[in-house]
C-alpha cells in the first residue's frame, strides 16, 4: 500500500522488528529509545502493543462486552485522551475520526490503519535503535537510555 522507503526494507528486517516488539525487554528498550526522540513516539509502541492484545481478544472469541471495553480503553488512552493532546499517537486526524465513528463495531480491524501508520513511523527508528543497541552492553541499555533522558531533562531546565 505504501510506496515509502520504509517498505523497501527486507522482509527479514520487518519480521525482526515485529518480533522484537513482542519481546517485553526489547520493547521496553525501544520505547525508552523513542522517548528521547519525540513525545508521541513512545506512545506508539504502547499503542501497538495494546492493539495486539485487542486483536488477541477478538480472535479468542471472548465476551463482546470485554472486547468493547478494550476498544474504549484504547480510544480513551490514545485516540481521544482526557489528557491533552486528545490524540496521543502520531496518526492523521482523519484516521482518529474514523476510529471514533466505528468504535461500536467489533472485530480485529478497527485499529488496522492506525496501527499500520504507527508501524511505519516506528520502523523508521528501528535501524538507529539496532545500531545503538549493538554499541551498548545488553545489560546496560536501559541505564544508558535513562542517563540520556536525565541529560536532556537537565538541559531543558
Automatic annotation (TrEMBL):
One GO term (biological process): regulation of signal transduction
Any one annotated GO CC term: cytoplasm
Protein name: Regulator of G-protein signaling 22
Pfam (any one): RGS
Superkingdom field: Eukaryota
GO molecular function term, any single one: G-protein alpha-subunit binding
Annotated RGS domain residues: 16-122
SUPFAM superfamilies, sorted: Regulator of G-protein signaling, RGS
Organism, scientific name: Dryobates pubescens
